[in-house]
Design goal:
Largest sheet of chain A: 8 strands, mixed
Largest interface: A-B, 59 and 56 residues
Number of strands of chain B: 7
Helix content of chain B: 25-40%
Order of helices and strands of chain B: EEHEEHEEEHHHHHHH
Largest sheet of chain B: 5 strands, mixed
Number of helices of chain A: 16
Strand content of chain B: 5-15%
Strand content of chain A: 15-25%
Helix content of chain A: 25-40%
Shape of chain A: globular
Radius of gyration of chain A: 23 Å
Oligomer: heterodimer
Chain lengths: 591, 238
């Protein structure tokens, strides 16, 4: 079977905030660019971001300073965020946010007509010395929706070429290890096409669906990480998964940290504001990892709420109806729908829920994907033709724990940076890497495997087994023996999924086929997560172990690197050399 | 409980048909999307769109017991009271008025085309300031009830005027977005935007039936927005 080839200067995979920010840059440059998205772009998961985009635009505080934002981010990352990348994000941020306003994003406003900013977790003034900052720019509690639609609208204005409802299945790389493009399937017709491109940009988002309970959309299946690992590209810090403190108990739906920013707080079954005990200064606005662990401690110590004592309450009613309806209208709606609780009158039942993948494809600030010369060890090498931006990338600006509001900033700053860098590269004559017929054939093998499957377990049952394994063995608190068991269960699942069965072989809008292809990606992310989590023998940020309860800067003040070829976990140095400010030295992290 | 679902696979079916399923929700008042997931476990060939599963992405607009809505935020007890007690079936069809690709998946091209016709993006040709363009809270408040649209198409596909003239009448969703930019103090293309709507079909085919208002899962009011555009056109004419 020979397949159709379409040739572009740049192909972007993923139509969320990062992908559409990159495509907008490239569409404006006039280079032949395509954006492939498995859903219509405004259905991407960016749409679910609520509270805002954190950035020192000096609206709430005219003296705000991006260096303070940088300090908070470095501290929040538990010191394994790369300081050159964080410096870039925080300093370029204001420009990127003002651009969003110029694009039409309907930010909420202050009396002065400027963008409204609210307090979020882990924020401070004056390098932690000046008290709580209010640095998160918001469009009510629908900032992601407003941002995603504004970006889609601007892409329409600049005639970006969209391939909507096309699923990228695998990277095409040649014998020299260069990336030549990507195979993608048109979901509507089933046609499979080779998108040949000088630059392939992964903006495929996260993979929260490896867990049984997650705030993530059903589409967050780690397609970029899966494709990367299958192509031999490593992943970094993939053990670092953020559990958001406030997912609605039972439903998993997100309730923004902005609720606590606006003055809401958590209570246990005794009505006690327990965060005062765990984080005396920042209280409910400590880092997300800290708050999530505190909640779990309350629940495990028998102070949880509800008949099973398996959640705590988020109290909001004291804020008053007017504030709730003007600042948090979406939350009122979600709480009524999914928790049957009107926040104006009663507290919202919440529980820490898988939310964000801090790890991903190692990349530099231009979005170029990196590998190590010796697989899991050695020097950084740039992977020709491959870029990664947004949640799928690990630049790393989030390290071991992301601060609220930094993900949207990450998307627009690095989507833009990759676009600018590729535009420049194309002007200087970036070359197309050529694949052989066998290289393309190799990238088609997985699609064929499912298409030719005759019997075996169903995709649904395999997916459930995978999600349950991750939920039970790699949650908020982790333990060596339990994780080792999880690692072996996933190895077993790999064998079962390789024999999995796709019954429906039809072409037209075959969502069963899409789910089968997604399952392979979930497995890749899950297995990398498991091996990296078992391997990092310390507690740092979101990675918290009973058997290694302390941070170990001597051995683990570094990135982890998972090499898919050998399944080995190695280490990569963290950048401590920002260009314009002094290094922030690791300190004990308290809030 | 009984579920009856519209089925059509272009590769195998000459015409669409309704298929019955028996689903065990264990007595729980699930969302319709959860019920569809249970059906899909029995029958993986069933096709429908879904993404956020919390009512913000607009993927799963469909017709449930005669009314358009989002499957993920529509509880069984709301859309089909009595269905859990076996008194009636949950009946799910694709959004009406658009071509069906497969099962509950419709071809939204016509809907998106009409959206694009209103130039759904901010136009301001004056040089951008070094910071944001200032906007007072009062000016910003004018966008509330407009920008929240999720393009689910529940409104336009419940509108008889849109069914009748889907190529010429822009439909409630597109017009709501048209007004969203007319109402934005940062936009400078007001006159051009109004001129584009000033013909017998684009806007004026709205007959004030208000189906759009009754189905909008976000509680928005396209009819009122259309009224505001009419007022602006009138004001401009005199």
């Amino acid at each position: 079977m020979s397949i159709r080839t379409i040739t572009f200067d740049a192909v972007i995979v993923g139509g969320g905030g990062a992908g559409m920010r990159a495509s907008l840059q490239l569409a404006q440059s006039g280079f032949k660019t395509a954006l492939i998205s498995k859903v219509f772009p405004t259905r991407s998961h960016t749409v679910s971001a609520q509270g805002g985009i954190t950035c020192a635009i000096a609206s709430a505080d005219p003296n705000d300073d991006w260096r303070w934002h940088m300090y908070d981010t470095v501290k929040g990352s538990d010191y394994i965020g790369d300081q050159d990348a964080i410096e870039y994000m925080c300093s370029v941020g204001p420009e990127a946010v003002f651009e969003l306003d110029h694009m039409g994003l309907p930010f909420s406003r202050t009396e002065e007509g400027r963008i409204y900013q609210r307090p979020f977790g882990g924020q401070s003034k004056n390098f932690g010395e000046g008290g709580q900052a209010a640095r998160t720019c918001a469009a009510a509690d629908r900032t992601g929706h407003a941002l995603l639609h504004a970006l889609y609208q601007q892409n329409l204005k600049h005639n970006t070429q969209f391939y909507n409802e096309w699923l990228a299945t695998d990277l095409v790389k040649n014998a020299r290890g260069q990336v030549c493009g990507v195979i993608a399937m048109c979901i509507e017709t089933g046609e499979v096409v080779f998108f040949k491109s000088k630059a392939t940009v992964f903006a495929t988002g996260g993979a929260g669906r490896i867990y049984a309970s997650t705030t993530n959309a059903l589409i967050n299946t780690g397609d970029g990480v899966g494709m990367a690992l299958r192509a031999g590209v490593p992943v970094q810090d993939i053990e670092m998964w953020q559990f958001h403190p406030t997912g609605i108990a039972g439903a998993g739906v997100l309730v923004t940290e902005g609720c606590r920013g606006e003055g809401g707080y958590l209570i246990n079954k005794d009505g006690e504001r327990f965060m005062e005990r765990y984080a005396p200064n920042a209280k409910d606005l400590a880092g997300r990892d800290v708050v999530a662990r505190s909640m779990m401690m309350e629940i495990l110590d028998g102070r949880g709420c509800g008949p099973n004592g398996d959640h705590v309450y988020l109290k909001l009613d004291h804020l008053g109806e007017e504030v709730l309806h003007s600042r948090l209208p979406g939350i009122c709606e979600l709480s009524k729908t999914f928790a049957h609780a009107d926040p104006v009158k009663e507290p919202v039942p919440v529980v820490p829920t898988c939310h964000y993948m801090m790890g991903g494809i190692p990349s530099n600030i231009h979005g170029q994907a990196l590998r190590l010369s010796g697989g899991h060890e050695g020097d950084d090498q740039i992977i020709d033709g491959l870029f990664a931006v947004g949640e799928v990338a690990c630049v790393s600006v989030h390290g071991a724990n992301r601060l609220g509001g930094n993900s949207l900033l990450d998307l627009v700053v690095f989507g833009r940076a990759a676009g600018l860098f590729i535009e420049d590269g194309l002007r200087q004559g970036m070359e197309q890497a050529e694949p052989s017929r066998d290289d393309i054939e190799q990238a088609m093998s997985r699609y064929r495997r499912w298409d030719e499957s005759k019997k075996g377990e169903s995709v649904t049952s395999l997916r459930k087994a995978l999600q349950q394994t991750m939920q039970n063995h790699f949650g908020v608190f982790r333990k060596g023996d339990l994780m080792a068991e999880g690692v072996s269960m996933l190895a077993d699942l790999r064998g079962r999924i390789a024999e999995g069965h796709l019954d429906d072989k039809s072409k037209a809008f075959n969502t069963a086929r899409v789910e089968a292809l997604e399952l392979d990606n979930l497995l890749e992310v899950a297995q990398a997560t498991a091996i990296a989590a078992e391997g990092r023998k310390e507690s740092r940020g979101a990675h918290s172990r009973y058997d290694f309860p302390d941070r170990d800067d001597e051995n683990w003040l570094c990135h982890s690197i998972f090499d898919p070829a050998t399944l080995k976990l190695g280490k990569r140095a963290v950048n401590f050399s920002p260009k314009t400010v002094d290094t922030f030295q690791p300190k004990v992290r308290t809030y | 409980m009984k579920v009856s679902i519209y089925r059509y696979n272009p590769e195998t079916d000459r015409e669409p048909y309704m298929q019955e399923y028996e689903v065990d929700t264990q007595g729980k008042d699930l969302m319709v999307l959860d019920v569809l997931a249970l059906v899909k476990e029995q029958d993986p060939t069933l096709a429908y769109r879904r993404s956020c599963r919390e009512g913000v992405c607009g993927s799963d607009g469909m017709n449930m017991n005669g009314k358009n809505g989002l499957a993920c935020v529509t509880a069984l007890s709301i859309v089909a009271p009595g269905v859990l007690e076996g008194k009636k079936a949950l009946v799910i069809r694709p959004l009406p008025g658009l071509p069906v690709i497969r099962d509950l998946v419709v071809d939204m091209t016509m809907f998106y085309n009409q959206y694009e016709k209103v130039q759904p993006y901010l136009i301001n040709d004056t040089p951008a300031p070094a910071i944001e363009r200032l906007q007072s809270p009062e000016e910003r408040e004018k966008l509330d009830g407009l920008y929240e649209c999720i393009l689910c198409a529940c409104c336009s596909t419940s509108c008889p005027s849109f069914w009748w003239n889907p190529e010429k009448f822009l439909g409630p969703a597109a017009l709501l977005q048209g007004y969203r930019f007319l109402a934005d103090s940062r936009d400078t293309a007001r006159d051009d935007r109004l001129s584009r709507l000033d013909d017998p079909f684009s806007l004026f085919r709205c007959r004030g039936i208000m189906n759009c208002v009754s189905v909008c899962p976000k509680g928005l009011n396209p009819t009122r927005a259309i009224g505001h555009i009419r007022d602006m056109l009138l004001e401009r004419a005199i």
